[in-house]
Amino acid sequence: MINFQNKISPHLTNLKEKPMLYTGIDLHRCVIALCTVNENGTVVARSRVKTDPAAILTYFRQWPDRHRAAVESTTGWYWLC
């Protein structure tokens, strides 16, 4: 299992409200680059995971409920949805 806790910014600790987070996904054949920012545009996490549904779910399950993601428009992205 992948542990992302050491890559989470302190900007997300001790908040009373869950912030809106945004993740950009750069999809490649073997590895996916992810960058998550908060409402202010501060980077709260960056990671590279295997191009595998389970690895991607592990990354996103660590976040609060309010989250939006965008993936680059390219061929082969359909499985990610």
First-residue to last-residue Cα separation? 22 Å
Low-confidence stretches: 1-6
Given this structure, which CATH class of the domain at 19-72 is correct? Alpha Beta
The computed structural class is: mainly beta
Summarize the main sheet. 4 strands, mixed
Q: In percent terms, what proportion of residues is strand?
A: 25-35%
Kindly report the CATH topology of the domain at 19-72: Nucleotidyltransferase, domain 5
General form: globular
Relevant terms:
single chain, 81 residues, mainly beta, Nucleotidyltransferase, domain 5, 1 helix, 33% strand, globular
Structural account:
The protein is mainly β and 81 residues long. It has a domain at 19-72: Nucleotidyltransferase, domain 5 (2-Layer Sandwich). Helices cover 11% and strands 33% of the residues. The protein contains 1 helix and 4 strands; from the N terminus they run βββαβ. Strands 3-2-1-4 form a 4-stranded mixed beta sheet, covered by helices on one side. The relative contact order is 0.27.
